[in-house]
């Protein structure tokens, strides 16, 4: 049976309020004058992955809980504007929202509203199975209640990816995602020994490819038992914000990988897309296109030193 959907994204739909601050941590004061202003826009992790894969030509569908509220309207409008399929399951607690404090150097601190989710939340199994039956791949965001959908995705025979973000390598919340995915992304931010964590993921779970992003230091790829350093791509414009860089990396990697590109070259696609995302102000939602992505990868390949492997 043919696939109607290339990438089914589960979870991670929501709204961010962007607040630019003079520095992080924010200096204590009675008040701060904020420029370029405070902006609320649709776009959390699942939204950004869906935007990225869709912009690169993958048929993308997004499934998540959304409230009947202004924030949910913003999420629906984002998907409609970019032609991304969306199945919105009613969420009485409201649409996920967060406040992102963004420093002058592009670093951010995210404050998530924990009142808009409950431990009992579930994506309807019948809906998950129906979408999985016509999908090729699922990218599962680590938001509640996506872990409960993993068995149905596995039974449908999809390949699965996930992004553990700043996991410390031990927090149990992340383990269902970490151990059920074929392809795992994570950040090195909270890892004291990235290689050890990456290898444990392949030993304890299903993952055969693990990618750990390291910001300006590029990324590390574990594939076929070999750990390789992937160089950071030069940003095409000044860096203004790191928000969404990891999601952009994942989307571009998936685009290349699902087209049969080897993991190393897929990771080059990821670094180029991640660097591009860092040049987009956090008040906007934009994804790299195929032409610019391919040009960036070609530039990296011309300058890359072969054989940079680590044991």
Sequence stretches where pLDDT stays below 50 over 5 or more residues: 307-311
CATH architecture: 3-Layer(aba) Sandwich
For the largest sheet, list the strands in their spatial order: 5-4-1-8-9-10-11-12-13-14
In CATH, the homologous superfamily goes by the name Ribokinase
Q: How would you sum up the major sheet?
A: 10 strands, mixed
Number of domains: 1
CATH domain class name = Alpha Beta
- The ordered string of helix (H) and strand (E) elements is EEEHEHEEEHEHEHEHEEEHHHE
Structure annotation, total helices: 9
Principal-axis shape: globular
Helix percent reads 25-40%
| Percent range for β-strand residues | 15-25%
The tally of beta strands, per DSSP, is 14
Mean pLDDT: 92
Using the coordinates shown, work out and report the CATH topology: UDP-N-acetylmuramoyl-L-alanine:D-glutamate ligase
**Rg from alpha-carbon coordinates:** 19 Å
N/C terminus separation? 42 Å
Q: Which structural class should the secondary elements be placed in?
A: alpha/beta
Describe the protein.
The protein has helices spanning 45-55, 70-82, 125-132, 150-155, 175-180, 194-204, 245-258, 263-277, 290-303; strands at 5-10, 14-20, 38-42, 60-66, 85-90, 96-102, 108-112, 135-140, 159-163, 183-187, 209-213, 219-223, 226-230, 309-310. Helices cover 32% and strands 24% of the residues. The longest helix has 15 residues, at 263-277. By secondary structure, the protein is of the alpha/beta class. The strands form 2 sheets. A 10-stranded mixed β-sheet has the order 5-4-1-8-9-10-11-12-13-14, sandwiched between helices. The chain starts with a strand and ends with a strand. Residues 36-285 form the Carbohydrate kinase PfkB domain. It comes from Streptomyces variegatus.
């Amino acid at each position: 049976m043919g696939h109607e959907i290339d990438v089914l994204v589960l979870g991670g739909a929501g709204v961010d309020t962007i607040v630019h601050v003079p520095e992080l941590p924010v200096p204590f004061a009675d008040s701060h004058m904020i420029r370029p202003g405070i902006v609320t826009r649709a776009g959390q992790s699942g939204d950004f992955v869906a935007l990225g894969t869709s912009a690169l030509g993958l048929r993308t569908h997004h499934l998540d809980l959304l409230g009947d509220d202004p924030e949910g309207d913003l999420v629906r409008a984002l998907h409609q504007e970019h032609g991304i399929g969306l199945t919105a399951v009613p969420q009485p607690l409201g649409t996920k929202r967060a406040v992102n404090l963004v420093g002058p150097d592009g670093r951010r601190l995210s404050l998530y509203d924990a009142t808009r989710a409950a431990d009992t939340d579930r994506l309807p199994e019948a809906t998950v199975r129906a979408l999985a039956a016509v999908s090729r791949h699922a990218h599962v965001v680590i938001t509640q209640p996506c872990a409960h959908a993993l068995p149905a995705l596995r039974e449908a025979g999809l390949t699965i990816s996930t992004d553990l973000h700043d996991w410390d390598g031990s927090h149990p919340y992340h383990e269902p995602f970490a151990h059920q995915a074929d392809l795992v992304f994570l950040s090195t931010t909270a890892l004291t020994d990235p290689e050890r964590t990456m290898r444990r993921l392949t030993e304890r779970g299903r993952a055969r490819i693990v990618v750990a992003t390291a910001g300006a230091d590029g990324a590390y790829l574990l594939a076929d038992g070999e750990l390789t350093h992937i160089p950071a791509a030069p940003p095409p414009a000044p860096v203004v914000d790191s928000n969404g860089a990891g999601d952009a990396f994942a989307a571009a990697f998936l685009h290349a990988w699902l087209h049969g590109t080897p993991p190393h070259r897929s990771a080059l696609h990821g670094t180029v897309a991640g660097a591009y995302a860092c040049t987009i102000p956090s008040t906007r939602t934009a994804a790299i296109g195929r032409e610019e992505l391919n040009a960036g990868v070609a530039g990296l390949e011309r300058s890359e030193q072969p054989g940079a492997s680590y044991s």
